[in-house]
Amino acid sequence: MSTYDALLLVSFGGPEGPDDVIPFLENVTRGRNIPRERLEAVGEHYHLFDGVSPINRQCRDLKAAIEADLAAHGIDLPVYWGNRNWEPYLADTVRTMRDDGVRRAAAFVTSAYSCYSCCRQYLDDIDRARGEVEGAPEIDKLRVYANHPGFVAPFVEATRSALADLPDDVRDGAHLAFSAHSVPLSQPGRESYVTELRDVAAVVAAEAAPGHPYELVYQSRSGPPSQPWLEPDILDHLEKAAAAGTRAVVNVPIGFTSDHMEVKYDLDVEATAKAAELGLAFRRAATPGTHPRFVAMVRELLLERSGDAPERPTVGALGARPDACPADCCRNGARAR
Ligand SMILES: CC1=C(CCC(=O)O)c2cc3nc(cc4[nH]c(cc5[nH]c(cc1n2)c(C)c5CCC(=O)O)c(CCC(=O)O)c4C)C(CCC(=O)O)=C3C
Ligand SMILES: [Fe+2]
């Protein structure tokens, strides 16, 4: 491992107590066209959990798991962590890295796909943070990993477990609802996002639940109602499925790497309640979190990018995404985030 002298975990950030919720939401939505009512409603989701998002805990656990995995493989590399929207802020982390003498780091982002929100915005965050720190290290974001076996295999396993957990009499006819965060149709990179999501859904469905009907749906939309976002929404989908006679749904949140608030609230509270109201048996499959296969993927991506592991494993039909996105990638057209 000669190319990199550090690994940087980059994430979204989330509040860690009731007083953090509004400042956090202001950070997230600065300069965005999010209706005030939506913000208040989302604040309530956080307050249901004492103002604590699961995401920072997930990042601490993932960082510890990566450190242990690297050490177990004889790779002596410090791991740092910085966020876009909450402490530890990326610029502060980059400053610490500089002070520690880091010259060149690989960045692992807790978002697996291509799109403005999933990839480019994190690249911009890294650029901005480096711009604030004189003598900042070089930072290379690792490739988009939605179709890496280390991301997909935990979902295959989780889908099988969720199916197995359904009551016997409804399991055979269960539908799979793969879900991902919706984005506005105008968001740059939206086509790649959908293409990658379809590819992952097809692989997981074929491996975990051959013969079961499945659909890709969206969740957590937020813009004004006049603005079109990716559809169908998971709640509408559940209604349609129930009306068509479906009795059981397994929800696989392939858009998420861990249990974010969108998973804990939008799926485990809201979609779960909707399914109960409709008389549907409903199970939500686990996210990768700190699954050992997912953690190992981080090391594999790091070695791959360092030139120490020439193969670029993928599943599905799309092949490996490039190491570095073209400068205009997920940035074209009107600035619609
Ligand atoms: C594609 C995508 C991902 C997946 C990629 C990735 O993982 O990064 C993602 C992740 C996340 N989104 C998160 C939280 C929020 N996202 C918001 C708003 C928005 N998200 C968008 C898209 C995405 N978001 C978009 C197009 C908006 C509209 C405003 C804007 O264009 O920015 C808002 C504002 C309120 C609301 O509108 O809901 C909040 C609070 C959290 C933290 C959750 C926690 O605390 O556990 C995480 C991981
Ligand atoms: Fe979001």
Output the keywords.
Rossmann fold, Ferrochelatase_C, 43% helix, binds fe (ii) ion, 337 residues, alpha/beta, 11 helices, 13% strand, binds coproporphyrin III, cytoplasm, 8 strands
Write the layout of secondary structure elements.
Elements: E1 6-11, H1 21-29, H2 36-47, H3 55-72, E2 79-83, H4 90-99, E3 104-109, H5 116-131, E4 138-141, H6 149-164, H7 168-171, E5 175-181, H8 190-208, E6 214-219, H9 234-243, E7 248-252, H10 261-277, E8 281-284, H11 292-306
Parallel strand pairs: 1-2, 1-3, 3-4, 5-6, 5-7, 7-8
Helix pairs in contact: 3-11, 4-5, 6-8, 6-11, 9-10
The structure holds coproporphyrin III and fe (ii) ion.
Portion of residues within helices:
40-55%
Bound molecules: coproporphyrin III, fe (ii) ion
* Secondary structure tally: strands: 8
What is the percentage of strand-forming residues? 5-15%
H/E element sequence? EHHHEHEHEHHEHEHEHEH
Question: So what's the CATH class of the largest domain?
Answer: Alpha Beta
What gap, in angstroms, lies between the N and C termini?
36 Å
